[in-house]
Write a structure and sequence with these properties.
alpha/beta; Rossmann fold; 2 domains; four-stranded parallel β-sheet; 12 helices
Length: 334
């Protein structure tokens, strides 16, 4: 019997520093997130980052937390319920990090008689720290606990026409009454080392990642994929050259990350005289800390404080009915 497991990032159980620290420990100790030896990762994470980061992150989570709980969890559950209404096979939900685990999602499916699971990582683009870690974790859990269960995976969908269409329609709807000067496509940042490590063709520069080395299609190049998502959306929206750009958010300071940085760009636009800025986050299909606090709140404050006049954050697809229909279509076509 077939079933589906939707997988998203995850969330702390609450906004308490204790729960946030527990969540961050699991997240940052993932070797696909912090790509270094276990010893160096242990020293960096537990010896340095976790000394101050949990309290700061807990305060950030408090800004965006809903009465019902974590926005990412609530929105993911709403999507799961809508998708379940559109398909006949069981649909479960799991998270890569936190207490709503992939194992619990698979156990739920097993209890319903499922022995063939279509795992759907809710990440449009390939990255070790997002899509790949979900795939590897699901395989590990299956090998340890569900030997009679077969898994297959939804490929990344950064250029899938269904995804592009639903993104374009969402953008049109959100910006129909906003006369913007510029649209910033803000993607989650990655260390440059992750791009090189994932590049089987070895086409990226050894020391510096340039525009040219990400100009050809590569199955595992996150930088190429996000630029391609922008290109396809821009084409459908018929945006003029110079009215949009790309940037990368959510970086750590331990090594070079993809540039330009979103916060730097937002400040630059305001100081250069841009008055109305719209920001879109196509690397996320569900609103979370990185979109609701970093972009919708911090980004807005930064833009207005530096001379901007109007700022519009475009919400993610979340539990949008059209997005639920797309997910259901992919399940039916699997």
């Amino acid at each position: 019997m077939k079933g589906v497991l939707l997988v998203n990032l995850g969330s702390p159980d609450s906004t308490s520093t204790k729960d946030v620290k527990k969540y961050l420990t699991e997240f940052l100790m993932d070797k696909m997130v912090m790509n270094m030896s276990y010893l160096f990762r242990l020293i960096l994470v537990k010896g340095i980052i976790l000394r101050t980061r949990p309290e700061k992150s807990a305060n950030a989570y408090k800004k965006i937390w809903w009465k019902e709980g974590s926005p990412l969890i609530i929105l993911s559950e709403r999507l799961q319920k809508k998708v379940q209404q559109l398909v006949t096979v069981p649909v479960s939900l799991g998270m890569r990090y936190g207490s709503m685990t992939i194992q619990k999602g698979l156990e739920e499916l097993k209890s319903k008689g499922v022995d063939e699971v279509f795992v759907m990582p809710l990440y449009p683009h390939f990255a070790m720290s997002s899509y790949e870690t979900v795939v590897e974790k699901a395989k590990s859990v299956q090998k340890s606990n569900f030997l009679n269960m077969d898994l297959n995976f939804l490929p990344v969908f950064y250029n899938n026409p269904d995804y592009i269409t639903v993104m374009v329609n969402n953008i049109k709807d959100q910006l129909k009454d906003f006369d913007y000067d510029h649209i910033l496509f803000s993607y989650h940042g990655l260390p440059e080392s992750h791009i090189r490590k994932a590049d089987e063709s070895k086409g990226h520069g050894k020391f510096v990642i340039t525009e040219d080395c990400c100009s050809d299609p590569m199955d595992t190049c996150y930088r190429f994929q996000v630029f391609e998502t922008t290109r396809l959306i821009v084409k459908e929206l018929q945006l003029k050259e110079g009215t949009y750009s790309n940037a990368f958010q959510s970086r750590l300071v331990n090594e070079p990350w993809l540039q330009p940085y979103t916060d730097t760009e937002i400040e630059r636009f305001a100081k250069q005289g841009k008055k109305k800025l719209a920001v879109i986050t196509p690397a996320f299909v569900t609103d979370c800390l990185e979109t609701l606090e970093e972009i919708a709140m911090e980004g807005k404050g930064q833009f207005l404080d530096n001379g901007g006049e109007s700022y519009k954050f475009v919400p993610c697809l979340n539990d949008n009915d059209d997005w639920a229909s797309v997910v259901a279509k992919w399940i039916k076509n699997n």
